[in-house]
Amino acid sequence: MRKWEALGNYVLQEKAIVEIFAQRPTNQMIEDVLIKVCLLNDFYSTNILDTFRVAKHILNLDIDKRLKAGDLGLINNIAIVTMKNGKSRNFYSFASKYCSHHQADVYAIFDSFVQKDLLYFAKKDKFCEFKRDNLKNYKEFSRILREFIKFYNLKRYSLRQIDQYLWLLGKEYL
């Protein structure tokens, strides 16, 4: 956590994201959704080239009740977006970030570093049996992450703190 706090630009970006999501907690107006999509896309480099299409997709899903209820299936619904060319794109990592910034205590962030970390520790310490593909189903990912938390006795840390740790670990070592 000390290492994370020393990363000034990341800490400030995270504070800005938290502030914007607090100011715009609902997803009923395209302007609110669009600004959140653009912010996450920029700060997290999620490579969404058509942010308006993704924002419109989220708006059309009418997600607020599901977010509030902690519906883990929502991530996979947000993730699959039909693009202008008619092809579907999977913005799974982005979807986890979007929901996490609405409810950080319910939705953990998935990214390639977290995936590498979980696979590494599953092989090393056998904290849980799963395959790489299981991590692409958010309900399974959440279950696996909770097994990780339980196995390593990390319950005193928030999902956001665990994400920050895993992100740094994956970035630096894996």
What features would you describe in this structure?
The chain is globular and about 45 Å long. A hairpin with a 5-residue loop joins strand 1 and strand 2. It is mainly alpha-helical and 174 residues long. It has a two-stranded antiparallel ribbon with strand order 1-2. The model has no long low-confidence stretch (mean pLDDT 94). It contains ten helices and two strands. Helix content is 63%, strand content 3%. The chain has helices spanning 2-5, 8-23, 30-44, 51-61, 64-69, 74-79, 92-100, 112-125, 138-151, 159-173; strands spanning 80-82, 88-90.
Descriptive keywords:
174 residues; mainly alpha; 63% helix
Quaternary state reads single chain
**Widest β-sheet, arrangement of strands:** 1-2
Strand residues, percent: under 5%
Label the structural class: mainly alpha
Mean pLDDT: 94
The coarse overall form would be: globular
How many H/I helical runs? Answer: 10
Along the chain, the helix and strand elements come as HHHHHHEEHHHH
Q: What are the segments in which pLDDT stays under 50 over at least 5 consecutive residues?
A: none
